[in-house]
Specification:
893 residues
């Protein structure tokens, strides 16, 4: 027979592979639910902040000192996500693969720990540990932690949790080896271990030989203080790292102290011990717990997290009895999920589990049963401790360790010391499930000893349990395949949960099923009338239909009354007023919104753009002026920061279009001052300086920007175009050359560069470049290239070639389908105008050659093209002026 230690790693590998195979189907899953804010929208993960910021922010990328932060401090988990993003971007597969690998590692370490520390005195400890490992690998309660990428926090904490326990186990074994031990006592202890336990077969001679190697080791008298100190240091280090992955990692030190007590109690059977060293080690662990807690509170700014009432209704209840009864009832609910993991759900918030408000509530019965259950366990431990004074009991250790591993990791999520942001979260049961499985296997073994006739039946029941876990896990994994399947699974389990219905309504809305989405939002409001997000989203659907616009307006007003800081409601109501032509009301709503929130720039900017697009420039300017006065020109000038940069740029552009260059330059300057590190703001300010004739300052600024980070200087080629218009060809060409190297695929840019080359006398390279560009752009996607080429033909006196190029461009535009009609018409209008100008010039040329008939024909065609150009692109003032001049000339003639 193989010694248990020899098969330990083999069984660990088997259980780890079982865990991997059970979840391999989830490796291709997308990001779902909490993964979106934690990964996609998290600036710390996306690399938009410095690495040191992950130690200052919470799990969701917000400052942990913020009043709105959930205070979930998990920097090591975020560091793992950031590394994965650095290597693979937002590809979900590596993230899911990481979770599966972590789950396999945790399962393997748990299997090893079971054999070394939980069931070491059993004759078949390796087989029992293997069963524990397989049950842990397949338990359906783990699906959320493994399938959801956010569950990586639980998995990392569990990995360090099990590593700490194994280090504690190794430390205890080294401690036993470090002192001289009475050989007769050891042999007596081994015999006890051989003949007691689960009631299975006695050890054979080979087994006895294998086990009897232990006294030879124990006889050695080698003091190892340095090794022991290193082990304690490693235990403290791994426990601290576990806390930096997930708050529940701190509970490992409680399990370590229980393990220390168990080891000390069992050592009393072999050798006399005062227990001073065990007490010292426990004191070190307790001190370390307090140090970590003080550090955690310091990081949080000595404040507790504030959660919304629906996230944890009991925590917001003023009645202490209700809180106590509800929290007590949540314990048996969680234990029920471990016992019967069928009704699983991704969300348990709101009133999914109603509050227990009185002592007459029937649900108190389950709390009493759980209390009775734990009382029975404590009594069993006490009885076994009393009996073990005379006879060794192999079930004492798994009973004590299993109970500690079940209870202690759950305490941080139990609302016992501080409120948490959830009612039930299946993820937090990942670690407690290990203790549950240890107790389950202990009960199985004990029952086999007490009732030998039922032993085969019990073994079959365990086999059936493994099959049940496997099937349920595979089925539950399918719920996490897509957003639709996840939300539908939630509706099947908790159809009365408002948040689940709200998520399902959002999915329907995103799937363009607006009618069904509106019906679901209405059901959400029936379940929870104060759900402002559902109210706001329902209004966005109702406002699309003229007959329900009034209802949408009422809903927006209700949202603002209930949540005055709800930014989207102000923005949506203002846009609704714009649709209904109530421009003054829209501006008034937006002004009120700006006063209610400091983070309102994006909404104000969007509304102003809508007003400009509808021709209400004065109303848009009113919005811009109010915000600029409020944030940048009054006492609150300190608020003129990066939040208003984009709005200031838009305001500067609007003023420039109105011809107010002075005020436009002022806005671009404010934009640059509000965020001097923003290269886009810097480039636009430089462009405004160039257009104002301050070329030297513009050149200095853009030179600084290029030297700082030329790869990210946006709109550099637009500044080059400004220099070109001002006949600063040398500066223009230099900027174009840099831009071309950075953006070699930008045809519009290359076309302008070719025009600059022509202006600087490099005619042949310019024509060659334009021929290559037009050959690449057969559909005239970049009509600027074709118009530049036509202009060069005109400069060379080849108006007929210019006309051919422009006609080919018009033919290409007819086949374009990926742009809006208005955009295509604008591009056609530009080409028609230029075509009319070339026909006009060619007509004049024919008139000088006395080819009057051809000249008149081209003149009429030129007028027709210009009229079509103005009709297609009314904003082209130059075209309109040319048309007016030709019409007047035609009339006078």
């Amino acid at each position: 027979m193989v010694c248990p230690e020899r098969g330990c790693y083999q069984h660990a590998v088997i259980s780890g592979l079982t865990a991997s195979v059970a979840y391999v189907q989830t490796i291709f899953n997308p990001f779902l639910h909490d993964d979106i804010p934690a990964i996609i929208k998290n600036p710390d993960v996306q690399g938009k902040t410095t690495f040191i910021e992950i130690f200052r922010n919470d799990f969701w990328g917000n400052s942990i000192l913020s009043n709105t932060s959930h205070k979930s401090y998990r920097p090591l988990t975020i560091a793992v996500f950031r590394l994965l993003h650095r290597c693979f971007g937002n590809w979900p597969l590596p993230y899911h693969a990481t979770n599966i690998i972590l789950h396999a590692l945790v399962t393997s370490l748990f299997t090893i720990f079971c054999q070394r520390s939980v069931f070491p005195h059993m004759t078949n400890s390796s087989h029992v540990s293997l069963i524990c490992g397989i049950l842990f690998a397949l338990h359906p309660i783990h699906t959320e932690a493994v399938c959801c990428v956010v569950g990586c926090a639980e998995l990392l904490a569990a990995l360090l949790f099990m590593t700490t326990l194994l280090m504690c186990s190794n430390f205890q074994s080294q401690t036993k080896e470090s002192k001289p031990i009475n050989k007769e006592a050891v042999e007596s202890h081994n015999v006890d271990k051989i003949t007691s336990g689960v009631g299975l077969r006695r050890r054979t001679k080979n087994n006895l030989d294998c086990k009897m190697q232990e006294p030879k080791i124990l006889e050695t008298v080698n003091d190892k203080p340095l090794t022991n100190n290193c082990n304690i240091f490693v235990i403290l280090l791994t426990s601290a790292l576990a806390v930096l992955c997930k708050e529940s990692g701190l509970s490992v030190l409680g399990v370590v102290m229980v393990h220390e007590c168990v080891e000390h109690y069992e050592s009393l059977k072999i050798k006399k011990s005062s227990g001073v060293k065990s007490i010292i080690r426990c004191f070190i662990y307790v001190t370390w717990v307090f140090i970590i807690l003080i550090f955690r509170l310091w990081v949080m700014g000595w404040s507790q997290p504030v959660f919304a009432e629906p996230d944890n209704p009991a925590a917001h209840c003023d009645d202490r009895l209700t809180r106590l009864l509800t929290y007590s009832y949540l314990w048996p609910v969680n234990l029920g999920l471990l016992l019967y993991p069928v009704n699983l759900c991704y969300d348990w918030s709101y009133n999914t589990i109603p509050l227990v408000t009185s002592l007459t509530d029937r649900r108190i019965f389950w709390s009493l049963i759980l209390f009775f259950f734990f009382t029975i366990i404590v009594l069993c431990i006490a009885i076994k401790l009393k009996k073990s004074k005379d006879q060794h009991d192999s079930n004492l250790r798994p009973l004590v360790l299993g109970t500690s591993m079940l209870v202690m990791p759950f305490i941080p999520a139990s609302n016992l010391f501080f409120p948490v942001g959830f009612v039930i979260a299946e993820r937090v049961l990942y670690l407690p499930s290990a203790g549950f499985i240890v107790l389950l296997c202990t009960a199985w073994i004990e029952a086999g000893v007490k009732f030998p006739k039922w032993k085969k039946s019990l073994n079959r029941m365990v086999a059936l349990l493994i099959v049940f876990y496997c099937i349920r896990t595979v089925i539950r994994n399918m719920d996490w395949i897509s957003r639709e399947s996840l939300f539908l699974s939630g509706l099947r389990t908790n159809p009365w949960n408002p948040k689940i219905r709200y998520n399902w309504a959002n999915y329907l809305r995103d799937s363009n099923r607006s009618v069904d989405a509106a019906a679901e939002y209405a059901k959400v409001l029936q379940l929870y009338p104060g759900y402002v997000a559902a109210m706001n989203n329902l209004a966005t659907i109702l406002e699309e239909t003229p007959t329900t616009m009034r209802k949408a307006e009422e809903l927006y007003v209700r949202v603002i009354q209930m949540r005055p800081w709800h930014e989207n409601a102000y923005n949506n109501l203002a846009n609704l007023f714009v649709k209904r032509g109530k421009y003054d009301d829209a501006v008034n709503v937006l002004v009120r919104g700006v006063r209610s929130s400091a983070n309102y720039m994006a909404h104000a900017q969007n509304l102003a753009r809508v007003l400009v697009s509808r021709g209400k420039v004065d109303k848009a300017e009113q919005i811009y002026k109010h915000i600029v006065d409020h944030f940048c020109l009054k006492k609150s000038k300190r608020n003129c920061n990066a939040q208003v940069t984009g709005l200031l740029q838009d305001y500067g552009s609007l003023l420039a279009n109105k011809g107010d260059r002075r005020e436009s330059l002022k806005m671009y300057k404010l934009s640059f001052q509000s965020n001097s590190s923003d290269l886009e703001s810097m480039a636009k300010f430089a462009n405004a300086l160039a257009e104002a004739g301050r070329v030297e300052q513009a050149t200095q600024l853009i030179t600084y920007a290029v030297g700082k980070d030329k790869e990210h200087v946006v709109d550099m080629w637009k500044i080059a175009a400004t220099f070109w218009k001002m006949n600063k060809l040398k500066e223009s060409k230099r900027l174009y050359e840099i831009s071309v190297k950075l953006h070699p695929e930008n045809l519009e840019l290359l076309g302008q560069y070719a025009a600059v080359l022509f202006e600087t006398g490099e005619h042949a390279p310019a024509v060659k470049l334009l021929e290559n560009l037009t050959a690449r752009d057969s559909e005239c996607q970049s009509e600027g290239v074709w118009r530049n080429f036509a202009s060069i033909h005109g400069r060379l006196g080849k108006h007929d070639e210019a006309i051919k190029r422009l006609l080919r461009c018009l033919e290409g535009l007819e086949s374009v389908t990926n742009n809006s009609v208005s955009e295509i018409n604008a591009r056609k209008g530009k080409i028609k105008c230029q075509l009319g100008k070339h026909k006009r010039d060619l007509s004049i040329l024919f008139a000088r050659r006395n080819k009057l008939e051809e000249a008149n024909t081209l003149w009429d065609q030129s007028l027709q093209d210009l009229k079509e150009g103005v009709s297609l692109n009314p904003g082209d003032k130059d075209c309109a002026i040319t048309l007016k001049q030709m019409t007047n000339k035609n009339t006078s003639t």
